[in-house]
Amino acid sequence: MAYRPPAMSPSAPTFKLAIVGRPNVGKSTLFNRLVGKRLALVDDQPGVTRDLREGEGKLADLRFIVVDTAGLEDVDDDSLQARMRRLTDRAVAEADVVLFVIDARAGVTPLDQTFADILRRRGGRILLGANKAEGRAGLSGAMEAYSLGLGEPIPFSAEHGEGMEALYAALQPIADTFADEAALITAQAPETNVALPEVLGEEDESDGVADPSRPIQIAVVGRPNAGKSTLVNAILGEERLLTGPEAGITRDAIGLEIDWGGRPFRVFDTAGMRKKARVQEKLEKLSVGDGLRAVRYAEVVVVLLDVASSFEQQDLRIADLAEREGRAVVIAVNKWDLEKDKSARLRELREAFDRLLPQLKGAPLVTVSAIEGRGLDRLREAVLKVHATWNRRIATAKLNRWLGDRVAEHAPPAPSGRRIRLRYMTQVKSRPPSFLAFCNKPEDLPESYTRFLVNGLRRDFGLDGVPIRFSYRKTENPYDRK
Question: In DSSP terms, which residues pair with 222 in a beta bridge?
Fold first, then answer.
């Protein structure tokens, strides 16, 4: 069957826009304005943004990829600021358009002049934006921006949404140029024969099967300095996220779409989570809150531990949080390259896992070395396994045969001499697997009997490593036609 790539739709992103500038000029506020969501953390103090964050920008009928970058610093050593600067330089090199933003209320600073000179020598499509241009002081600073030699400044206020029509007017001809180029490439593309996917066999309609074309959402969480960003970089195969020996480098929960072994994933790198009592600063509270949201929207949570200090109290809290949120969990122990007696240490880790996290019984425990890129294949297999289990559905007929066997094996108690009767059960949803049993006196069933049933479901249906939700409903026997 002949296949011709479809023409790019008007709503598809047509170019990539990088927002750059010195710290605290409002880049993240503008980023949030363009993507229409509060994706990037915003605070009054400078230097909040450290990693690159991408989103789909929308301005009237224009669609584009917008990149939020760290504040530009005039450093070239191996400090944290210098590593942030190199990430921003990379974003500039990969962008189709660079929007250089200054603070109109502060006017043109020496640092603005330095980076304007760098951008001017680099060439390419460069726009000059004067943010915080509301009011008389802002307009004065916007006029001063002419001195940077980057063309006519675009005055706007990202916080109040003023001046967006001027930014639209500057971006529209650029978008038209890229749309014309894309249309030309599409028209000249040769026809390609594409084989239809091979049918591997019929699936049992009772089993939940995740769509393989939809990215699996993963959140990598853990204490500060466990190596979360290093692990995500290792999975990506490139230095996409800021890393270093300093604890607490990551602040935003950065989501990255990748192809990992032929399967699409969306991986969220999150800020390190310390004990709540130690989190005092507003910015760290925002970062932790961002990470908690990533856990709630994830499908699989990778809890990353440091091999030198595994299963500390905070690790247990983080893993328990993921379980309570109903996420599938994988425990990954990082910095495995530093461990001398690996076999003995692995036995210790498995014993501690079984003892300290019984609610995650059967969840995979994988050892990795993010800095050396080892163990990533095992990690991917573990993620795919628990994700498939998390999506599993079991036919009602199978469940009721199973329930009959379990009740015959261990009958419910009979408080006050009246037997509790479990009528039937069904799976009401997956993600995580959730079951509902109907009985005549659910309020009298002890918690120990629910644990008996949940443990049996794990054992008999292979539901290891995922949370199981089990509830009851009081009802009469529906088959009793009196």
Answer: 304
> Which residues participate in the annotated binding site for GTP?
21-28, 68-72, 131-134, 222-229, 269-273, 334-337
Model confidence, pTM: 0.63
Binding-site residue set? 21-28, 68-72, 131-134, 222-229, 269-273, 334-337
**Token pair for 238:** 């490139």
Dihedral sign computed on CA atoms, order 247, 253, 258, 262: positive
**Cα gap 151→128, rounded to integer Å:** 7
Q: What is the pLDDT of residues 66-94, one digit of tens each?
A: 888 776 665 565 555 555 666 667 777 77
- For residues 152-168, b (16+ Cβ closer than 10 Å) or e, as one string? ebbbbbbeeeebbebbe
Integer CA distances (angstroms), 341 to 16, 345, 349, 369, in order: 48, 6, 12, 15
pLDDT digits (tens, 9 = 90+) for 152-194: 899 998 888 888 999 999 998 888 887 766 555 545 544 444 3
Nearest to 249 by CA among 293, 287, 282: 287
Buried b (16+ CB within 10 A) or exposed e, 55-65: bebbbeebbbb
Do 361 and 457 touch, CB atoms closer than 8 A?
no
Alpha-carbon span 51 to 274, nearest angstrom: 20
State how far Cα 327 lies from the chain centre. Answer: 13
What is the spatial distance between Cα 274 and Cα 256, in angstroms, rounded to a whole number? Answer: 24
Domains of the chain: 2-183 (3.40.50.300), 216-390 (3.40.50.300), 396-474 (3.30.300.20)
Say if residue 467 is preceded by a cis peptide, omega within 30 of 0: no
